Give the backbone structure.
Amino acid sequence: MPTLDTSAQPSLDDMRELMDNADCLISQSEVELALDRMADEITRDLGDKLPVFYCVMNGGLITTGHLLTRLGFPVEVDYLHATRYRGGIRGGELFWRVSPEVPMAGRHVVIVDDILDEGATLAAILDYCREAGAASISTAVLVDKQHERKAVPGLKADYCSLEVADRYVFGFGMDYKGYWRNAPGIYAPKGL
């Protein structure tokens, strides 16, 4: 069983053991189908709007990349980096690393992230978009974690095709101690 000490730098053996023993909650093929559904919904709603997509780094990188290639209309792309995890497995205070460069004022904005967990990061980003004068704001997340601890009661993503139980998850953009964002599905460590 991998060490669950959140302060120690994991070893290669730790990370391999973690994956070898992880539960696959959502396969890569299920993720691909979910992204197809999300792209269809976004195309229906925003295909005539010239929206700007903001990837929430680092978690949203893989979801954004896979989602954008499914959209058959012109979009502008930027990124922002706001995090509560900073390499750990428990969220803390919101930390802004990078603000977006493309102005949001008067634009149809789509925020793309990997997961809606408690939603404190997403809520802060949405406030930022409102203050920046976005014409409309939509959210697209790959996974919605099912629990009652949302930062804003009733917070939901506008576009989301997958749900997971209240477990720590990694893969397809989500990490475990900074690793395994590249796992081709969605996994949960044993015991978490």
